[in-house]
Amino acid sequence: MDNTLFWIGFLLFIGVFLALDLGVFHREAHVVPPREAAGWTLVWVTLAVLFGIGVLAWEGTETGIAWFTGYVIEYSLSVDNVFVFALIFGAFAVPRELQHRVLFWGVVGALVMRFVMILAGAHLIETYHWIIYVFGAFLVFTGIRMAMSGGGHAAHPEQNIVVRVARRHLRVVPEYHGQSFLIRTAVGLAATPLLLALITVETSDLIFAVDSIPAIFAVTTDPFVVFTSNAFAILGLRSLYFLLADAADRFRYLKLGLAAVLVFVGAKMLLTDLLKVPPVLSLVAILAILAAAIAASLFADRRDGARPTEPAAP
Asked: Which residue of 40, 69, 249, 256 has the fewest C-beta atoms within 10 A of its own C-beta?
């Protein structure tokens, strides 16, 4: 897709929905209950599906399937972000009613970062074809490392180097001040812990983007398809967090499934000049991997729940 009107229209669409989100639906800070989170998750998935159907009808079957494949890859990888966000909010003791505000601005920052990274990545691949092998090898390595890590995350996300630099150069007050990231004090502006939490969220998303964006380039190098599928997954990430944040233990094998997806798309990139995998086959393979990981997780959770609890030793 090379139509400027599509880009303008989509960016306006994102701007309108973000303005409605912050200015109307979440003007007042509140705890997002599961029912509300489920409703917004359904809204964003429905909008994504409708948009994908539009791409399929306008650009043809191959581009449409590539869009859906990219969306599934990005949305499934974003589940890992959910559990990292839970760690970040726990580390900074962010009140539940303020978490949506952090994620909102985190999404805005993520959209800007990914827009730049996707345009740069598409230019690199178009100019230097060999870079696709670098992306493929990186994805295979990342997938293997993810599988061998056992699903663990950094225990202290608040101690990453970006946050340490921020603490060193910013005046930080120890307490929260409502939804404010910055407050005015007697000695000048000061940051609240909410700003540090936002910085950590943005840093973690940048790290995840390094994995997920090359994965979608394995499917298509069309910048519009890559960005819009990324954007819909990111826009639905907030509601997905409030829906799944407390259910990390129920998806114990999902990390292995995500690792297998990364290895699959990485291998697809490495073999791009030798073996052409049809887009529909890639989509089916990715869905099958994720479905198997989720089914195995739920089965293991039910099996463990059915085991009788051993009585405590006297």
From this structure: 249
